[in-house]
Amino acid sequence: MRRLFLALCLALALPVGHAQMRIDVSGVGATQYPIAIASFATDGRTPQDVANVVRGDLARSGAFRVIDPQATMSDTASINFPDIRSRGADSVLAGSVSRLADGRYDIRFRLSDAVRQSTIGGESLVVSEADLRYGGHRVADWVYEKITGEKGIFSTRIAFVSKQGNRFKLNVADWDGENVISPLTSPEPIISPSWSPDGTRLAYVSFELKKPVVYVHTLASGQRKAVANFKGSNSAPAWSPDGRTLAVALTQDGLSQIYLINSDGSGSPRRLTSSSGIDTEPVFAPDGKSLYFTSDRGGSPQIYRISLGGGDATRVTFGSSYNVSPRISPDGKTLAFLTRREGRFLVAVRDLAGGNETLLSDAGREESPSFAPNGRWVMYATQAGGRDSLVAVSIDGRVRQRMTSNAGDIREPTWGPFAK
Q: pLDDT tens digits for 320-353?
């Protein structure tokens, strides 16, 4: 089984530190909204071009055709709507960034309908200098939701693992790979990072004790705790929706089986599955009443679903002799997973109600799918041209973003929740 279902073994990854991340975007959405985004007015030099952050976010989403009106417009400026329309835009975003007496920055913006020549809305947010880029992401989220009706994911974060030489790093970054921090550096492998529902903690597996052990790491304080260090292998942590429980794969009783443990490490593990095969890679359904996992109990690795209330597991995937690494969309309607087709490992999504499946990747060496919190994107790791990189693809497969580092390979992505 490929890397023991990609969860019970080592994952190679990248170095980050001062490395530069690059995103290459291909494809466009089925619908593109033309929007003009003016440069925001300032009261002096600001350390971050907020309007440019918004432009980049919306352009990379594939849902917008971003137009630069070659002008600076404050949120209170009078807008020349005929000029905006002549440039092909249906809406226009204007704004300002001003430094407050306490050193923070006030970002104000206004979105207008250029067709109706009316104001759609606007807001103000105050951020520290260090969070100016984050403020731009929040503006992009607001615009995206106002125009598309869906929540934006631009202020979310991702986590991933990197490797340079003999050093492994657990990394956290903005959704676009910027602002990378490394909460953990280790000479031993780190795999299977998983975000807590509130985005404050990461569970992961580290081999620093010369065996796989599950840790929970609090990002703000840097404190971490081993929450699963039982006999044998401890792997594949997955959070319950309320953040109180972790599903893990343990071999303390022999073969790998699924157990539930308290996320603070207290108490004893509660066994959920009992089979004669390998059960691993658990993930909770959004309602917290069941979970999906990978098992070879039927002879080949497939994805199953089991109720936390007990009962037999039900097989979910068919159509291939190898289906692993389940991830469930936030609305619980779609399953993302890895499938082997003609010797190639591809990312697929399955409509759980209708059973229809769609392949989202084509490189053939994919791993670790993860849904964006709005369910509109799937991020995964891939290898092509001798380089390991991350790819985010829209759920319809039309838009693709490849994230690479100039310093090496990056793997094991997991997409964090919406910012609180």
A: 999 999 999 999 999 999 999 999 999 999 999 9
**Which H helix or E strand runs over 134?**
helix 132-148
Structural domains present in the chain: 32-148 (3.40.50.10070), 157-415 (2.120.10.30)
- Confidence at residue 103, expressed as pLDDT on a 0 to 100 scale: 95
Task: Give the count of beta carbons closer than 10 Å to the beta carbon of residue 160.
Answer: 29
Collapsed DSSP state (helix, strand, coil) of residue 240: coil
417 with 201: CB under 8 angstroms?
A: no
What whole-number distance in Å separates Cα of residue 142 and Cα of residue 111?
Answer: 10
Q: Up-side HSE of residue 93: CA atoms within 13 Å toward CB?
A: 32
What torsion, rounded to 10 degrees, do the Cα atoms 296, 300, 304, 306 define?
-30
> Residue 11: pLDDT above 80?
no
Q: At what angle do helices 50-60 and 132-148 cross, to 10 degrees?
A: 50
Paired strand residues for 227: none
Q: In what order do the strands lie in the sheet with 323-328?
A: 323-328, 334-341, 344-351, 357-359
Q: What band does 408 get if pLDDT is binned at 50, 70 and 90?
A: low
Q: Which distant-in-sequence residues (6+ apart) come within 8 Å of 369 by Cβ?
A: 325, 327, 336, 337, 338, 347, 378, 379, 380
The yes-or-no verdict on residue 267 having pLDDT over 90 is yes
Q: Average pLDDT in the 398-415 region?
A: 87
List of residues 6+ apart from 331 with CB closer than 8 A: 286, 375
Beta bridge partners of 161: 170, 411
Nearest to 66 by CA among 108, 33, 24: 33
Q: What is the mean pLDDT of the chain?
A: 92
Strands 64-67 and 33-37, by their bridges, are parallel
Separation CA 173–CA 201 (nearest Å): 14
CA angle (398 as vertex; 394, 402 as ends), nearest 5: 65
For residue 302 the two structure tokens come to 């497939």
pLDDT for the residue numbered 312 = 93
Q: What is the largest CA-CA distance in the chain?
A: 72
